[in-house]
Every structure is written in C-alpha cells, then in structure tokens.
Target: 2-dehydro-3-deoxy-D-gluconate 5-dehydrogenase
Amino acid sequence: MHNPFDLTGKVAIVTGASTGIGQGIAIALAKAGADVVGVARTSVEETSREVVAAGRKFLPIQADLASTAPIQDIIDQTVAWGGRADILVNNAGIIRRADAIDFSEKDWDDVLNVNLKSVFFLSQSFARQLLKQKSGGKIINIASMLSFQGGIRIPSYTASKSGVAGLTRLLACEWASKDINVNAIAPGYFVTNNTQQLRDDPDRSAAILGRIPAGRWGSPEDLGGAAVFLSSSASDYVHGVVLPVDGGWLVR
Ligand code: NAP
Model:
C-alpha cells in the first residue's frame, strides 16, 4: 500500500544539522527514507553516523549562514551529489539575550542574518532549483513560540522568528501554484544549546516548565513526526501553516 509519509528517493537539505533540533529532524527524515545534506559551521559527524545507520546517504557541507555567500554552493553541491533537491529545512538559528534597553546592533544583525536573511535567500536558491528540475518540493522553516509571542530579552530573536512566520506565509502564497509547499514548525521549549541559559536559571526554568501542559520540555525527537509530515506527500495541500509542536504551551 502507498505510504503517504514515505520519503524514499528524496534529497533533503537540513541547515544546522550538527546538533539539537536540526539533528533530530535530519535523523527523522532519514528514517522516513530521505538522503540528507547536513549543513553547519562545525562537524556534522554525529548526525552523519545516525543517517547512515538508518540506511541513507549523507553529505556534510561546512558553511556559515551568517552571510549569503555559501548559499548557491549549498544547492550546487547537493545537486552534484544527489542529482536533485526535494526538501529544505531552514533550521540553523542563533539567539542573543540582553535587555532591549541595552541591546547592541551587532546582536541585532547577527541574529537577523542567520535566522531570517539566509532563510529567504536559501529558499530562493532552492526554489530556483525546483523550477529548473521541473518538480515540486517542500520548504520547512523553523519558527518559534516567538513567532506568536513577544518574550523578553531577545528582541532580535523575536523579530527574526516573527519574520519567519510572515515569510512562510508570503512564500506559500507565491509558490503554492508551483507545487512548492512552504510551511513552518514552531517548537515550544526544547532541551538544546539554544535554551541552556534558560534551563540554567532555576526561576525561569521552573516557570517555563510549570506552563507546559505536557509537563516536560521537548526533545528533538518530538519534532520528527511534524517534519516528516510537512516533507511528504501527506501534506501536499498544506500551505503556509506555522505548526506549533509545543506540548500545549500556546493553548495554556
Ligand atoms: P542549537 O542546539 O544551538 O543548534 C543550532 C544549529 O544551528 C546548530 O546545528 C548550529 O551549528 C547551526 N548554526 C548556528 N549558526 C549557524 C551559522 N551561522 N551557519 C550555519 N549553521 C549555524 O539550537 P536548536 O535549539 O537546535 O535550534 C535550532 C532551531 O530551532 C533554531 O532556528 C532555533 O531558533 C529554533 N528553536 C529552538 C527552540 C528550543 O527550545 N531549543 C525553540 C524554538 C525554536 P554550528 O554551530 O555547527 O554551526
């Protein structure tokens, strides 16, 4: 029987695949059948081992998405290696914490460059490749609770993730007719490097946990199902959603 979640034969690019949420998504896509291109500044060796253990191929690409310089090369290397590109997961992201009153221009630019500017231009290069290969494809942006809420002490992060939600909707409107699905996943509070400072602060940590109806922080494996769904033919008529995977945080 046809399995609408099967990703066999698909080539998926996952940015920020060295650790955390990107690593979890890369492994989930591989388990669903996709070959994976893992992009990060540092080693993606651990992710590579897991993808290969799942029986899929893995291409590591070392690139710094703080600038748009490596973007076309990421697409070119992917196509040279896998013959095509089908899925793009824009996951690489950073956060800087300081009171808004003291926030620096560098912390603004650094975060916006990785979390929003490179997301747009990588999506653009990827979509051009899809048009060239005359196929549809799937783009999954990693948004955040800060795509819906304000938060505190993270002004550039909130601006970037609110921007990611808007960009997801715009690209969905422009590209749905080209069989390109653009959607986002909004993770709640997950145990990764990104939330280390929050979890190190006993008061913030307890306050966050106390508001999560599921009663626990998320772990990267919790996002696999949503990522496979949005990467697969099961979601072919789903466009422009920002899907919370948050243990119920937003409905509290
Ligand atoms: P993480 O553990 O800090 O991982 C971030 C990933 O992004 C790493 O693989 C990192 O790899 C990569 N990265 C960072 N800067 C990069 C750059 N300039 N160029 C290329 N790759 C870069 O954080 P995470 O929690 O897994 O975050 C992944 C995504 O989920 C981010 O977009 C984050 O905003 C989002 N998110 C996280 C949470 C959470 O609770 N953890 C909640 C909502 C949304 P290298 O350091 O090797 O480059």
